[in-house]
Please model this.
Amino acid sequence: MINETRLVETFLDLVRIDSPSGEEAAIAEELKDRLGQLGLTVERDEMNNIVARLPGQGEALILAAHMDTVMPGHGVKPVVKDGVVYSDGSTILGADDKSGVAVILEVLQTIVECELPHPPLEVVITVQEETGLAGAKALDKSRLQAKMGISFDAGELPGTIVVSAPSHNFVSAVVHGKAVHAGTQPERGVNALLVAAQALVDMPLGRIDEETTANFGRIKGGRARNIVPDRVELLGEARSRRLDKLEAQTAKMIEALEDAAQRHGATVDVEVTRAYDGYTLAEEAVVVRRLATACRASGVEPSLVPSGGGSDANIFNAHGMQVVNLSTGMSGVHSTEEHIAIADMVACAEIALHFMEDLSS
Model:
Protein backbone atom coordinates (compact mmCIF):
# COMPACT_ATOMS: atom_id res chain seq x y z
CA MET A 1 0.00 0.00 0.00
CA ILE A 2 3.00 2.30 0.30
CA ASN A 3 3.10 4.72 -2.64
CA GLU A 4 6.76 4.61 -3.66
CA THR A 5 6.55 7.53 -6.07
CA ARG A 6 4.92 9.77 -3.48
CA LEU A 7 7.42 8.71 -0.81
CA VAL A 8 10.34 9.63 -3.05
CA GLU A 9 8.78 12.96 -4.03
CA THR A 10 8.24 13.81 -0.37
CA PHE A 11 11.82 12.92 0.49
CA LEU A 12 13.20 15.01 -2.38
CA ASP A 13 11.04 17.96 -1.36
CA LEU A 14 12.31 17.77 2.22
CA VAL A 15 16.01 17.50 1.45
CA ARG A 16 15.78 20.60 -0.75
CA ILE A 17 14.73 22.65 2.29
CA ASP A 18 17.82 23.85 4.16
CA SER A 19 17.68 22.82 7.82
CA PRO A 20 21.10 22.61 9.49
CA SER A 21 20.78 22.42 13.26
CA GLY A 22 19.44 25.72 14.54
CA GLU A 23 17.98 26.69 11.15
CA GLU A 24 14.82 24.58 11.14
CA ALA A 25 12.10 27.26 10.94
CA ALA A 26 11.35 26.74 7.24
CA ILE A 27 11.10 22.97 7.36
CA ALA A 28 9.14 23.10 10.63
CA GLU A 29 6.55 25.28 8.89
CA GLU A 30 6.42 22.85 5.96
CA LEU A 31 5.92 19.86 8.24
CA LYS A 32 3.27 21.67 10.26
CA ASP A 33 1.32 22.29 7.06
CA ARG A 34 1.71 18.74 5.74
CA LEU A 35 0.65 17.13 9.01
CA GLY A 36 -2.30 19.50 9.35
CA GLN A 37 -3.48 18.66 5.83
CA LEU A 38 -3.53 14.98 6.83
CA GLY A 39 -5.94 15.79 9.64
CA LEU A 40 -3.55 15.65 12.58
CA THR A 41 -3.66 18.20 15.37
CA VAL A 42 -0.27 19.91 15.35
CA GLU A 43 1.67 21.72 18.07
CA ARG A 44 4.95 23.57 17.54
CA ASP A 45 6.99 24.69 20.53
CA GLU A 46 9.38 27.62 20.88
CA MET A 47 12.32 25.56 19.60
CA ASN A 48 10.32 24.42 16.52
CA ASN A 49 9.84 20.86 17.79
CA ILE A 50 6.64 19.44 16.35
CA VAL A 51 4.18 17.13 18.09
CA ALA A 52 1.20 15.98 16.03
CA ARG A 53 -1.59 13.60 17.03
CA LEU A 54 -3.91 11.23 15.19
CA PRO A 55 -6.57 9.45 17.28
CA GLY A 56 -6.87 5.68 16.95
CA GLN A 57 -7.63 2.45 18.75
CA GLY A 58 -5.40 0.53 21.13
CA GLU A 59 -2.11 1.42 22.77
CA ALA A 60 -0.62 4.79 21.81
CA LEU A 61 2.55 4.87 19.75
CA ILE A 62 5.26 7.47 19.15
CA LEU A 63 6.57 7.94 15.60
CA ALA A 64 9.76 9.98 15.92
CA ALA A 65 12.39 11.57 13.70
CA HIS A 66 14.45 14.75 13.60
CA MET A 67 14.28 17.47 10.98
CA ASP A 68 17.76 18.98 11.32
CA THR A 69 20.87 18.01 9.38
CA VAL A 70 24.62 18.39 9.70
CA MET A 71 26.81 20.61 7.54
CA PRO A 72 27.47 21.10 4.67
CA GLY A 73 23.71 21.21 4.35
CA HIS A 74 22.82 24.33 2.39
CA GLY A 75 21.57 24.00 -1.17
CA VAL A 76 21.20 20.22 -1.28
CA LYS A 77 20.66 18.98 -4.85
CA PRO A 78 19.40 15.39 -4.75
CA VAL A 79 20.23 13.03 -7.60
CA VAL A 80 18.29 9.81 -8.25
CA LYS A 81 20.27 7.09 -10.00
CA ASP A 82 19.48 3.38 -10.32
CA GLY A 83 17.02 3.40 -7.44
CA VAL A 84 19.33 5.27 -5.07
CA VAL A 85 19.18 8.92 -3.98
CA TYR A 86 22.47 10.81 -3.65
CA SER A 87 23.46 14.45 -3.25
CA ASP A 88 25.40 16.04 -6.10
CA GLY A 89 28.56 15.57 -4.03
CA SER A 90 28.90 19.14 -2.79
CA THR A 91 26.73 18.66 0.32
CA ILE A 92 25.33 15.99 2.54
CA LEU A 93 22.04 14.49 1.32
CA GLY A 94 20.04 14.85 4.52
CA ALA A 95 18.74 11.29 4.63
CA ASP A 96 19.76 11.62 8.27
CA ASP A 97 17.04 12.15 9.17
CA LYS A 98 14.71 13.40 6.46
CA SER A 99 14.31 9.83 5.28
CA GLY A 100 12.70 9.16 8.66
CA VAL A 101 10.46 12.21 8.31
CA ALA A 102 9.45 11.17 4.79
CA VAL A 103 8.65 7.63 5.92
CA ILE A 104 6.43 8.96 8.73
CA LEU A 105 4.57 11.25 6.33
CA GLU A 106 4.01 8.44 3.83
CA VAL A 107 2.81 6.05 6.53
CA LEU A 108 0.36 8.66 7.81
CA GLN A 109 -0.92 9.43 4.31
CA THR A 110 -1.42 5.74 3.59
CA ILE A 111 -3.33 5.26 6.84
CA VAL A 112 -5.59 8.24 6.16
CA GLU A 113 -6.27 7.48 2.47
CA CYS A 114 -6.85 3.76 2.96
CA GLU A 115 -8.67 4.20 6.28
CA LEU A 116 -6.41 1.62 7.89
CA PRO A 117 -6.81 0.65 11.54
CA HIS A 118 -4.09 2.17 13.69
CA PRO A 119 -3.29 2.99 17.30
CA PRO A 120 -3.38 6.55 18.64
CA LEU A 121 -0.31 8.18 17.11
CA GLU A 122 1.95 10.86 18.54
CA VAL A 123 4.29 12.13 15.84
CA VAL A 124 7.36 13.80 17.31
CA ILE A 125 9.76 15.56 14.94
CA THR A 126 12.55 17.32 16.78
CA VAL A 127 15.16 19.97 16.07
CA GLN A 128 18.86 20.14 16.91
CA GLU A 129 19.30 16.40 17.33
CA GLU A 130 22.70 16.60 15.67
CA THR A 131 24.03 19.09 18.21
CA GLY A 132 23.43 17.10 21.38
CA LEU A 133 19.76 16.07 21.21
CA ALA A 134 18.82 19.58 22.28
CA GLY A 135 15.33 19.52 20.80
CA ALA A 136 14.34 16.25 22.45
CA LYS A 137 15.78 17.39 25.77
CA ALA A 138 13.73 20.61 25.67
CA LEU A 139 10.53 18.90 24.55
CA ASP A 140 7.78 18.74 27.17
CA LYS A 141 7.62 14.95 27.51
CA SER A 142 4.82 15.18 30.08
CA ARG A 143 2.44 15.93 27.20
CA LEU A 144 3.16 12.59 25.54
CA GLN A 145 0.84 9.73 26.41
CA ALA A 146 2.54 6.89 24.52
CA LYS A 147 4.83 4.55 26.41
CA MET A 148 6.53 3.02 23.39
CA GLY A 149 7.53 4.07 19.91
CA ILE A 150 9.70 3.89 16.83
CA SER A 151 12.36 6.45 16.02
CA PHE A 152 13.18 6.34 12.31
CA ASP A 153 16.81 7.34 12.67
CA ALA A 154 19.16 4.45 11.91
CA GLY A 155 21.10 3.06 8.99
CA GLU A 156 22.12 -0.39 7.79
CA LEU A 157 19.83 -2.93 6.10
CA PRO A 158 16.03 -2.87 6.39
CA GLY A 159 14.92 -4.55 9.59
CA THR A 160 17.84 -3.24 11.64
CA ILE A 161 16.54 -2.36 15.11
CA VAL A 162 18.80 -0.45 17.50
CA VAL A 163 18.06 -1.88 20.94
CA SER A 164 20.97 -0.39 22.89
CA ALA A 165 22.82 2.93 22.89
CA PRO A 166 25.52 4.39 25.15
CA SER A 167 25.58 6.90 27.92
CA HIS A 168 27.69 9.88 26.94
CA ASN A 169 29.92 12.20 28.98
CA PHE A 170 31.24 15.52 27.73
CA VAL A 171 34.75 16.11 29.09
CA SER A 172 36.02 19.69 28.97
CA ALA A 173 39.40 20.76 30.34
CA VAL A 174 41.41 23.97 30.67
CA VAL A 175 45.14 23.66 31.32
CA HIS A 176 46.76 26.67 33.02
CA GLY A 177 50.48 27.19 32.54
CA LYS A 178 52.74 30.23 32.59
CA ALA A 179 53.43 32.53 29.66
CA VAL A 180 56.94 33.81 28.96
CA HIS A 181 58.95 34.80 25.87
CA ALA A 182 59.75 31.58 24.04
CA GLY A 183 63.09 32.85 22.77
CA THR A 184 64.58 34.50 25.85
CA GLN A 185 63.10 32.75 28.91
CA PRO A 186 61.47 29.44 27.86
CA GLU A 187 62.74 27.64 30.98
CA ARG A 188 60.77 30.03 33.18
CA GLY A 189 57.47 29.20 31.48
CA VAL A 190 55.01 26.35 31.86
CA ASN A 191 53.81 25.19 28.47
CA ALA A 192 50.09 24.39 28.73
CA LEU A 193 50.10 22.90 25.25
CA LEU A 194 52.85 20.48 26.22
CA VAL A 195 50.85 19.46 29.28
CA ALA A 196 47.78 18.82 27.15
CA ALA A 197 49.80 16.81 24.64
CA GLN A 198 51.35 14.70 27.39
CA ALA A 199 47.94 14.00 28.89
CA LEU A 200 46.53 12.93 25.53
CA VAL A 201 49.45 10.55 24.99
CA ASP A 202 48.99 9.03 28.43
CA MET A 203 45.24 8.42 28.38
CA PRO A 204 43.39 5.62 26.55
CA LEU A 205 41.49 6.99 23.56
CA GLY A 206 39.65 5.63 20.54
CA ARG A 207 38.05 2.19 20.72
CA ILE A 208 38.44 1.11 24.34
CA ASP A 209 36.33 -2.04 23.98
CA GLU A 210 33.21 -3.13 22.09
CA GLU A 211 31.02 -1.02 24.37
CA THR A 212 33.23 1.98 25.06
CA THR A 213 34.87 4.78 23.07
CA ALA A 214 36.67 8.01 23.96
CA ASN A 215 37.93 11.01 22.04
CA PHE A 216 39.32 14.50 22.29
CA GLY A 217 38.19 16.31 19.19
CA ARG A 218 39.17 19.91 19.73
CA ILE A 219 42.12 21.74 21.25
CA LYS A 220 42.56 25.51 21.37
CA GLY A 221 45.11 27.76 22.99
CA GLY A 222 48.19 29.90 22.79
CA ARG A 223 48.69 33.52 21.85
CA ALA A 224 51.61 33.61 19.44
CA ARG A 225 54.38 31.38 18.15
CA ASN A 226 56.96 33.15 20.32
CA ILE A 227 55.01 32.95 23.59
CA VAL A 228 54.96 29.85 25.77
CA PRO A 229 51.21 29.09 25.91
CA ASP A 230 49.67 29.60 29.32
CA ARG A 231 46.14 28.42 28.56
CA VAL A 232 44.85 25.51 26.48
CA GLU A 233 41.27 24.28 26.19
CA LEU A 234 40.36 20.69 25.28
CA LEU A 235 36.95 19.31 24.35
CA GLY A 236 36.44 15.56 24.55
CA GLU A 237 33.96 12.84 25.27
CA ALA A 238 33.53 9.30 26.52
CA ARG A 239 30.74 6.87 25.69
CA SER A 240 29.81 3.41 26.85
CA ARG A 241 26.79 1.16 26.92
CA ARG A 242 27.82 0.20 30.46
CA LEU A 243 27.76 2.93 33.06
CA ASP A 244 30.62 1.45 35.13
CA LYS A 245 32.86 1.43 32.07
CA LEU A 246 31.89 5.01 31.23
CA GLU A 247 32.80 6.20 34.71
CA ALA A 248 36.08 4.26 34.67
CA GLN A 249 37.08 5.70 31.28
CA THR A 250 36.15 9.23 32.33
CA ALA A 251 38.23 8.86 35.51
CA LYS A 252 41.25 7.78 33.45
CA MET A 253 40.94 10.84 31.24
CA ILE A 254 40.77 13.13 34.26
CA GLU A 255 43.67 11.34 35.95
CA ALA A 256 45.90 11.72 32.87
CA LEU A 257 45.17 15.44 32.72
CA GLU A 258 45.83 15.98 36.40
CA ASP A 259 49.03 13.90 36.42
CA ALA A 260 50.46 15.71 33.39
CA ALA A 261 49.67 19.07 34.94
CA GLN A 262 51.33 18.13 38.22
CA ARG A 263 54.49 16.85 36.51
CA HIS A 264 54.95 20.09 34.61
CA GLY A 265 53.96 22.54 37.31
CA ALA A 266 50.64 23.47 35.72
CA THR A 267 47.07 23.25 36.92
CA VAL A 268 44.01 21.92 35.16
CA ASP A 269 40.27 22.44 35.53
CA VAL A 270 38.14 19.56 34.31
CA GLU A 271 34.37 19.61 33.87
CA VAL A 272 32.34 16.48 33.14
CA THR A 273 28.76 16.77 31.96
CA ARG A 274 26.37 13.91 31.24
CA ALA A 275 25.12 14.55 27.72
CA TYR A 276 22.53 11.80 27.90
CA ASP A 277 21.92 8.40 29.47
CA GLY A 278 22.09 5.12 27.62
CA TYR A 279 19.46 2.45 27.28
CA THR A 280 19.20 -1.27 26.60
CA LEU A 281 15.97 -3.02 25.68
CA ALA A 282 15.75 -6.79 25.87
CA GLU A 283 14.60 -8.91 22.96
CA GLU A 284 11.49 -9.68 25.02
CA ALA A 285 10.56 -6.00 25.44
CA VAL A 286 7.14 -5.37 23.91
CA VAL A 287 8.25 -2.82 21.34
CA VAL A 288 11.21 -4.96 20.25
CA ARG A 289 9.22 -8.18 20.01
CA ARG A 290 6.35 -6.61 18.07
CA LEU A 291 8.64 -4.69 15.74
CA ALA A 292 10.55 -7.89 14.98
CA THR A 293 7.22 -9.54 14.17
CA ALA A 294 6.34 -6.64 11.87
CA CYS A 295 9.67 -7.04 10.07
CA ARG A 296 8.97 -10.70 9.37
CA ALA A 297 5.43 -9.88 8.23
CA SER A 298 7.07 -7.54 5.69
CA GLY A 299 9.42 -10.25 4.46
CA VAL A 300 12.43 -8.79 6.27
CA GLU A 301 14.51 -10.62 8.86
CA PRO A 302 14.98 -8.38 11.93
CA SER A 303 18.49 -7.64 13.20
CA LEU A 304 18.81 -6.41 16.78
CA VAL A 305 21.96 -4.33 17.15
CA PRO A 306 23.68 -1.99 19.62
CA SER A 307 24.83 1.48 18.65
CA GLY A 308 27.87 3.52 19.55
CA GLY A 309 25.99 6.80 19.09
CA GLY A 310 23.13 8.52 20.81
CA SER A 311 19.82 9.72 19.40
CA ASP A 312 16.48 11.09 20.50
CA ALA A 313 15.63 7.51 21.52
CA ASN A 314 18.03 7.95 24.46
CA ILE A 315 15.96 10.86 25.73
CA PHE A 316 12.65 9.05 25.32
CA ASN A 317 13.93 5.94 27.10
CA ALA A 318 15.31 8.07 29.94
CA HIS A 319 11.74 9.29 30.50
CA GLY A 320 10.30 5.81 30.89
CA MET A 321 9.28 5.12 27.28
CA GLN A 322 10.39 2.13 25.24
CA VAL A 323 11.60 3.61 21.96
CA VAL A 324 13.91 1.89 19.47
CA ASN A 325 15.54 3.16 16.30
CA LEU A 326 14.52 1.47 13.05
CA SER A 327 16.68 1.65 9.95
CA THR A 328 15.45 3.69 7.00
CA GLY A 329 18.41 2.45 4.95
CA MET A 330 20.49 5.63 5.12
CA SER A 331 24.20 5.16 4.44
CA GLY A 332 27.32 7.32 4.46
CA VAL A 333 25.67 9.80 6.81
CA HIS A 334 27.46 12.99 7.87
CA SER A 335 29.42 12.99 4.62
CA THR A 336 29.03 14.15 1.03
CA GLU A 337 28.79 10.45 0.07
CA GLU A 338 25.51 10.07 1.96
CA HIS A 339 22.87 8.11 0.03
CA ILE A 340 19.78 5.96 0.47
CA ALA A 341 18.10 3.25 -1.57
CA ILE A 342 14.46 3.93 -2.38
CA ALA A 343 13.56 0.29 -1.78
CA ASP A 344 14.92 0.52 1.76
CA MET A 345 12.71 3.50 2.58
CA VAL A 346 9.72 1.62 1.21
CA ALA A 347 10.58 -1.44 3.30
CA CYS A 348 10.85 0.72 6.42
CA ALA A 349 7.42 2.25 5.79
CA GLU A 350 5.88 -1.20 5.23
CA ILE A 351 7.35 -2.46 8.51
CA ALA A 352 5.81 0.50 10.31
CA LEU A 353 2.39 -0.25 8.81
CA HIS A 354 2.56 -3.90 9.89
CA PHE A 355 3.60 -2.81 13.37
CA MET A 356 0.60 -0.50 13.72
CA GLU A 357 -1.76 -3.10 12.32
CA ASP A 358 -0.60 -5.48 15.06
CA LEU A 359 -1.01 -2.84 17.78
CA SER A 360 -4.54 -1.92 16.73
CA SER A 361 -5.79 -5.49 16.30
In short: The radius of gyration is 23 Å.
